[in-house]
Amino acid sequence: MSDESLADRIERWMVGQMPIIQMHGGTSVVREANEETGEVVVELGGTCSGCGISNVTADNIRRDLIMDFEEVTDVHVKVPASGDQGASTVEGGRGGDLRYETESANHF
């Protein structure tokens, strides 16, 4: 096992496995990675807000993290409610109010 934290390993994985997020103007950050409970919270932002396939991206992240990290048992993906940008928005200019995704394709 590496001395690197679970959050750092997942951040590195996100960059390597999900480059399409950045290629399309989106952002991602690991907000929580609890090594004891296996719960991971990932936040998507930028152009992921309002994107028609962001539900597919969220499903892929959820599935792949559980498959690739044996200690990960539960993954939540958060996405801004709107594409607003600017200093008054969520950290990093992600914009909008954060909401947990649901299983519905209309969750954004």
Describe the structure.
Residues 80-108 are annotated as: Disordered. Residues 19-75 form the NIF system FeS cluster assembly NifU C-terminal domain. Residues 94-108 have a biased composition (Basic and acidic residues). The chain has helices at residues 6-17, 19-23, 54-68, and strands at residues 26-33, 39-46, 74-80, 98-100. It has a 4-stranded mixed beta sheet. It has 3 helices and 4 strands, in the order ααββαββ. It is globular. The longest helix has 15 residues, at 54-68. The model is unreliable at 83-108 (pLDDT under 50). The chain starts with 5 loop residues before the first helix and ends in an 8-residue tail after the last strand. The chain has a single domain (6-100), classed as GMP Synthetase, Chain A, domain 3 (2-Layer Sandwich), CATH 3.30.300.
